[in-house]
Write a structure and sequence with these properties.
The chain is mostly helical. Strand 1 (about 310-315) and strand 2 (about 320-325) form a beta hairpin. It contains 17 helices and 2 strands. Helix 1 (about 5-30) packs across helix 5 (about 95-120), helix 12 packs antiparallel against helix 13 (about 250-265) and helix 16 runs antiparallel to helix 17 (about 355-365). It has a two-stranded antiparallel sheet with strand order 1-2. Among the domains are: about 5-120, no CATH class; about 305-390, no CATH class. Helix content is about 70%, strand content about 5%. It has helices at about 5-30, 40-60, 70-75, 75-90, 95-120, 120-140, 145-155, 160-170, 180-195, 200-210, 215-230, 235-245, 250-265, 265-280, 285-305, 330-350, 355-365, and strands spanning about 310-315, 320-325.
């Protein structure tokens, strides 16, 4: 609370919002200074109450964006109540003392008057929060990005919100440097672009925001999801490495990582992230599904090394086409063996697409232990099929 940046925060905002109240206080004290008995107990109590209430309203007033200290400064309510009770219990008030007592709630009311005036209209509140936030950013940074976001989110028009956010980024760029607050605002602009379907611009803003603040986990997760949707698993894996490293207990990131590792046939990452998911969420229902898919992916990785063409479905139900050309060798027998393996893998893909247990039995007879459980379905004639079992 007593940090220099925090005190500067309080000073700037109080001067911006509550300056008329302090001016009136000084004016009244100057006017009645000869009537005040400064050493009397009522005057001392009244002064303490005034100071405490001013600090209380300044620190917890929502329009001042100071809610982070409400728990500490709300404790002032008890001494304020005690002092007011002690002051009211003393019946020996001179007219000047009673005037000072009345001055306390008047000044306290003036401190909260800006809150009422600004909150009476959402548009004015939105613009005011944005203005205060930008001024705060240009002077001392602390907490300003959250204040700007609060103000702009009050705008009901998504297009207007995006336009205001990008204008804010342009205005604040001279002070941005390597400031994480600027990265937070830029990531929000990327979110807005994504909501409008502009994936290219959204991805660009997200990547730039990570240059300002690499710790934006939600933004990094958004990049991973976008890479998965656009079938760019190798780009996703780069972001996932950092995301899981920063937050090893991020279950969503672990699920994304396992899916991408399966897509790429990356057995090492698959095992590492599976072990971490078991430790973090041992009751996760997806664990069993991953365990069933693992043997197939290990077999798939071995065949890729031999130069086969495969087409399977990963746990995210996306079509994955990894084409590896046949090795240039003179051994026709080797080529025939590779084509045979390719044919067998095509059969596995047929199973995953609902081809039935007949193909599964034929593959098992050829020594392919894929570990796939074939669900009940129908054959080409529409007849029911039995549930396949693990070979």
């Amino acid at each position: 609370v007593l940090a220099p940046a925090h005190l500067m925060d309080l000073f700037n905002i109080v001067v911006l919002v509550a300056a008329p109240a302090f001016f009136l206080l000084v004016l009244l004290v100057t006017r009645f200074r000869r009537s005040l008995t400064w050493h009397s107990v009522p005057v001392k109590f009244g002064t303490c109450v005034l100071v405490l209430m001013a600090a209380f309203y300044a620190m917890v007033n929502p329009v001042l964006s100071m809610p982070r200290d409400w728990d500490l400064f709300s404790l002032l309510a008890l001494p304020i109540l005690f002092l007011l009770t002690a002051l009211l219990a003393d019946g020996k008030f001179s007219p000047e003392d009673r005037g000072l007592l009345g001055l306390t709630p008047i000044v306290a009311g003036l401190l909260t008057l800006p809150l009422f005036l600004v909150n009476s209209n959402a548009a004015r509140l939105s613009q005011r929060l944005e203005d205060i936030g930008e001024y705060a950013y240009a002077t001392y940074y602390s907490g300003s990005s959250v204040l700007i976001q609060m103000g702009q989110n009050l705008d009901a028009d998504p297009a207007e919100r995006l336009q205001r956010r990008e204008a804010t980024l342009d205005r604040l760029h001279p002070w941005s440097g390597g400031d994480p607050e600027y990265g937070f605002l830029m990531a929000g602009a990327g979110d807005m672009r994504m909501m409008r379907g502009d994936t290219t611009r959204a991805e660009s803003l997200w990547k730039r925001s990570l240059e300002y603040d690499p710790g934006l986990g939600r933004t990094r997760s958004n990049l991973v999801q976008l890479s998965i949707i656009q079938r760019r698993p190798r780009e996703a894996i780069e972001q996932l490495d950092r995301l899981i490293q920063d937050d090893p207990k991020n279950v969503r990131a672990l699920h994304q990582g396992i899916g991408v590792a399966l897509t790429l046939g990356d057995v090492a990452r698959f095992r590492a992230w599976m072990a971490r998911l078991r430790a973090v969420a041992p009751l996760d229902p997806e664990l069993e599904k991953y365990e069933q898919i693992q043997p197939l992916q290990q077999f798939r990785a071995r065949v890729v090394e031999r130069g086969a063409v495969i087409g399977l479905r990963d746990p995210l139900h996306q079509r994955i086409e990894d084409t590896v050309p046949l090795p240039a060798c003179a051994d026709q027998g080797a080529k025939r063996r590779i084509r045979r393996v390719q044919h067998l893998l095509d059969g596995v893909g047929h199973i995953l697409r609902g081809g039935g247990v007949t193909v599964a039995r034929r593959l098992r007879s050829r020594g392919i232990e894929s570990g796939i459980v074939v669900e009940s379905g129908q054959d080409r004639r529409g007849l029911p099929l039995e549930r396949g079992r693990r070979p």
